Every structure is written in structure tokens, then in C-alpha cells.
Amino acid sequence: MKTIRIAAAMAALVSMTAPAMADYLVKCGSGGYRYTYCPVDTRFGVELHEQESTTPCTQNSSWGYDAGGLWTDGGCRGIFRILEGRQAPPPPPDYNEGGDADAILADVIADGTMEQLQDDDAQQGRPIGYGSADAVEACALASETKEFSRGAQSVTFESIDQVVPRARRTFDVEVTLIVEWSNGKARRYDGTCRVRNGQVIAYSRF
């Protein structure tokens, strides 16, 4: 019992004397509307403290973070608060959940595009799950999930226009997609995804 009391007293003393971990601010900006990565400790989360650009800074669209740092894109420039000493927040939404990529990509797969990407991944020695073909599949799932949340009835990839390697296991995917809405009307869009480590970190269409 005495040992327990001493341990408890020591723990209380440590908690009283240990300095509290303070948040700190970091500037990170997308110069020339290009993707920019700022390595920081993101264990406890990141918040936008102040937007410095005229271009909107929207989380998971023009800025976000992963286990290794903070990223900005599309002209977003801002001051970000790096949180310290808190319980880690839930991870950013994963747009890759749900959906049937094979159904979305049925026409594209038929014309051999996916097979070409898979062959390129094999030649480049890209590991399974992190190649260009995987990036396209992740983009397909992201587009379906996102557009369904906006009221779409169906999403189809009409074509894969570009798959551009940006960094290790990071790709920009540009596609043409057709979205059919609940009123029966369909519209063609240009869509883009940024995929890192097989996960979509940004999706947009216009």
C-alpha cells in the first residue's frame, strides 16, 4: 500500500511540473497553384488558423494532412495550427470507402486502358496497391462516393485522360466522368483526383 501511495504522489508531481505542450503555427502555401508538401508532426491534428490566399482553402480539397505532414494545392495559402498534446482527432474522411470500382470502370477496362496502366506499373516496379492503376481505381471509388452524397444516381468514367506521377506513390488522375442525377439528366464533367499511397486525398470536378 505504501508503494502505491508513493507512486501516486510521484505521478502527481510529474503532472504538475511537466510543461504543457503548446500548439504552434506553420505557414504552408501552394505557389503557382502547385501541390506543396510541408513536413510537420500531425499526430494530434491540424487546423486552418488563417487563410492568406484569395483562393479558398478547403480541407480535403485544397489542403489536408497525413501522417508525415501538411499539404496545400490549387492556390491555397494559409497559416495552420499544429495541435499538440491532445487526443488525436478522427482521420480525414476516406472517400475510398464503398462503391464498386469495377462497375464504374467497366467501359474503360474494356478498351484496355487499365491493362496498359497495370503493365506500366509492373515495368516501373511499383508495388501492388500503390501504382497508377490502383490510383485510378481509388479515384473511381472517390468520385462515386462523393457524387452519390450530392444526389447522383450513377457515375461512369467515360475516359481516363491522364495519370501523372507526382512523387513517390503519388499520382494526379484526370478523367472525364458522366454523372446522372435524380431528375434523369446526365452531365459530363472533368474530374481530378490526387492519390497518395493508394488513398484519395483530394477530389474535384468541374
What does this structure look like?
This protein is of the alpha+beta class. The chain contains five helices and ten strands. The strands form three sheets. Strands 7-8-9-10 form a four-stranded antiparallel sheet. A hairpin with a 2-residue loop joins β4 and β5. It is globular and about 55 Å long. It starts with a helix and ends with a strand. The N terminus is likely disordered.
Provide the descriptors you would attach to this structure in a database record:
3-stranded antiparallel beta sheet; 5 helices; alpha+beta; 4-stranded antiparallel beta sheet; globular; Nuclear Transport Factor 2, Chain: A; 2 domains; about 210 residues; disordered N terminus
**What is the CATH-assigned architecture of the largest domain?**
Roll
| Coarse shape | globular
- How many domains comprise the coordinates? 2
N-to-C terminal Cα separation, in Å?
68 Å
Tell me which oligomeric state these chains represent: single chain
Summarize model confidence as the mean pLDDT.
78
Task: Give me a quick take on this structure.
The chain is α+β, with helices and mostly antiparallel strands and 206 residues long. The chain has helices at residues 2-17, 101-104, 106-110, 113-124, 132-149; strands at residues 24-29, 36-39, 46-51, 63-66, 69-72, 77-82, 152-167, 170-181, 186-196, 199-205.
